[in-house]
Records
---
Amino acid sequence: MDLDLPEELKLMKTQLRRFVDSELIPIELSSYDGPELKPEVRAKLEAKTKEMGYWNISTPVEYGGLGLGLMARVVIWEELGRTVAVPIRKTSLFGPEVSPILYHLTDEQKADYLLPVISGEKDTCFALTEPDAGSDPAAIKTTAVRDGDHYVINGYKRFITNANNADFIQLMASTDRSKGARGITTFLVDVKTPGVTLVRSQTMMMDDAPYEIAFDNVRVPVSKRVGNEGEGFRLAQDWINTGRVRHGARGLGVIQRCLEMATTYAKQRVTFGQRLSERQAVQWMLVDSYIELQQLRYLVYNAAWKHERGEDIRHEAFMAKMLGDKLSFLAADRCMQIHGGIAFAKELPIEKFWRDQRSMMVTEGPEEVLRMSLARHVLDQFAA
Ligand SMILES: Cc1cc2nc3c(=O)[nH]c(=O)nc-3n(C[C@H](O)[C@H](O)[C@H](O)COP(=O)(O)OP(=O)(O)OC[C@H]3O[C@@H](n4cnc5c(N)ncnc54)[C@H](O)[C@@H]3O)c2cc1C
């Protein structure tokens, strides 16, 4: 793999670096309204990204988007990772985020769901997690039972991001519990369907406020099923993989910014008659983050490069996510340590980076679960 970015991506990186430095970092401590971006802030930033020509970045060209590959998106996620101005689970300032599941829809379904999401007329959320099943999706209890030309859905979902803004839910339900994950099917469920209730939201330490949703005898026409029964995970696989690479790419930006803040502070702050930057204990913390940044960069860009070549990146994605979240949390933690007491002040972004990155280590797959899957690969690949 050529680690030098192509010219057009270098240009994009420079433009985005400027955008983050001039438009996002200056507002990063005042951009939120509860768990979301202030509407006027979002409108202003989106006008800017449109003006820069970065709109509908991942939407395929045939649907009017830029159809950027994973490499370009990694560049964007990395640069955005340098700021806490934008909520981590609804980060896109570059047009609606379209889950690739929606590209698997029938033409009729695309007209009702995909196209309105691309145009911004409809919003959506993804609902898999339940009180008794998070990392282990095979354990979900929400069922969809066929009844003539409908399915009857019963169950309870929790931690669902953006449910309050969603017009429809991409719902994962079991059509055959005896098959575990292979019995899971995706449905498009309009939020206003009788029996769907947004029960409550929970405010999290990172400022997110995901929702619990109850499904009580919800009747959904068969025409709202995505693909065939049991294909839920197969159709979501590429999304899951690229989502994991996204964690890694964001981690790069976080480490970079934490190094910027920690080195600057270490050069200024004097204790016991000497600058912190002259102390080996502090230098080694900085050097550790620097080495980890280089390691992570290779993992993340290698995953993106392979994806663009059409290769299976499942294992690369596991590693990018696991290390991206862990190393960026460590970088934020070291940045916090070097700053001492002032690190905890809400006047600096350090504590927000720390809270955000800690949560990333659990959501979309905790390290232990990723290691469990990776172990199968290692045992297959290296055993004699
Ligand atoms: C802010 C936020 C937003 C979210 N948004 C969404 C959303 O939009 N849609 C959605 O469907 N879900 C969402 N989630 C759910 C999230 O993906 C889950 O929390 C995550 O998958 C972990 O599941 P869990 O919380 O049930 O933990 P569990 O599965 O109960 O695991 C708890 C802990 O046990 C350990 N563990 C688990 N399995 C193993 C194992 N095999 N070996 C060793 N240790 C293990 C891990 O350390 C793990 O952290 C969100 C969560 C949060 C906090």
Note: The chain has nine helices and twelve strands.
---
Amino acid sequence: MSLQREGWWHRLLRAARPLLARVLGWLPLRWIFEVFYWFSGDPWAYWTSARERARYDDAMRILDGRLAGRRVLEVGCSNGAFTARLVGTGAHVTAVDISLMALRRARSRVPRAAFRRLDVFAEGLPEGLFEVIVATDVLGYTDDLALLRGVRDRMVGALADGGVILLGNTKLRAEDGEGWDAFASGYPKLGATRIRAVFMERMRVVEGSEAASYRIDLLTSSSDILQGTVLDS
Ligand SMILES: C[S@@+](CC[C@H](N)C(=O)[O-])C[C@H]1O[C@@H](n2cnc3c(N)ncnc32)[C@H](O)[C@@H]1O
């Protein structure tokens, strides 16, 4: 995530970090994101940043050939920048986010996807429906591993036979010695290494990619996946 590298309001937020940490600590997660999207329609510059485009390119390379005509769930879709990439392949995309402001922006930019508000930490997912589930930079907003395991189990339950999960997360300096320092309020609380470890309790890696700032894995819990070969367990 490039929150620390973007425009003037990021610099302002950084200067006000101690105060923000207190205020955001009291706010429910949903309202934190509503505030972010109220300040800026694209708080992480997903539609314009070359760095984010490269991360999306990496994810699309891993998903290549697995999307056209498939039912795809995107969790934490933000303002639709990656949703647009998924829709462009001919996939049938359902995209969810906790923030209504984010969804409003996503809907206006990607009319061909189905959007709905959903808190993935608290709400259920339809069983056995999706061939592909995408969750990038959305599962680190808790440090409750039991909660994360619950989300993981619901995501695995939402997969159709042979389905795959694309899991992508920012590396945290605190976990990996490289990567990102949590911004105001200490989010994200979990980084790529710890989130991946929770998913690997039930899933195997089909394909993966690692950069200095993030890690992406395509995971399955099935021995008979849609396409590709299982590499390790
Ligand atoms: C850092 S952005 C990541 C956006 C996109 N997935 C990406 O990787 O470019 C995190 C998004 O997840 C959403 N989000 C955070 N917690 C969520 C939750 N519990 N359920 C659904 N969406 C959530 C936020 O509103 C925000 O749009």
Note: The beta strands are 71-75, 92-97, 114-117, 130-136, 159-170, 204-210, 214-220.
